[in-house]
Amino acid sequence: MKEVIVRNKVKVIGEGEQTLVLAHGFGCDQSMWQFITPAFEKKYRLVLFDYVGSGNSDLSAYSGEKYSSFGGYVQDVLDVMDSLQLTDVIFVGHSVSSMIGMLAAIERPEHFRKMIMIGPSPCYLNDGEGYVGGFERSDITELLEMMEMNFSGWASFMAPLAMKNPELPELTKDLERTFISGDPVIAREFAEVTFLSDHRAELAKSTVPTLILQCSDDSIVPIEVGEYLHKHLSNSTFRLLEAKGHYPHISHPEETITMINEYLQMD
């Protein structure tokens, strides 16, 4: 499966026997993990990759039809695991990757030992029936229109909102550069798939022990979402970070590392 290694720009680092698969969020790539990987390299084997359409993946492998739902991204995860013959993995997913990883684990629970979700959401839309997702449908429509009409404008609007650490302006600029470096058409399609998704019905099917890391002030995922997940995901542990924003592994790597290590040592 060498083509998968090239297609998804798969990178393997670290010295341990236990494997951590790290999956990036929307609009990003595997470089988002650079501040936390050094803390795990000695004890774990780390697998990094880019989803097709993101980062340094093979863009020619992207198909709007295949990636019109989470199914295409779930297949990317399973392909990467198959290509490296991985089993018993600890899957670390940021944002949208939390649900992608969960769906992959529902499909093949025996291949996943634990899940770690950073800023996860099963549904970004408020549904009017007591569920707070954080966005109205009109918000998402405006977001998608902005991406279509002025992609760089969208990036400069979205980066500070998502990072939410104005005292660290260099992190916001780096995130903006990452957003802008993506293919505008693919990024918009991924955004639509992400923000209009609803995977609340699948939560009951998940059996893999899961850590939910929720930021204290996240513009993308309100605290109510993390609490909802904890309530509906069996075998889940909920931790509220002091970190603000949607990228604690970038803005607050030490706290993120501590929380992950504490969970992994609970065995």
Automatic annotation (TrEMBL):
SUPFAM superfamilies, alphabetized: alpha/beta-Hydrolases
Record Pfam families: Abhydrolase_1
InterPro entries membership: AB_hydrolase_1 (IPR000073), AB_hydrolase_fold (IPR029058)
One function term, GO molecular function aspect: hydrolase activity
KW Hydrolase (keyword) present: yes
Top-level taxon of the source organism: Bacteria
Alphabetical keyword list: Hydrolase
UniProt key word Hydrolase: yes
PANTHER family in the cross-refs: ESTERASE-RELATED
Name of the protein in question: Sigma factor sigB regulation protein rsbQ
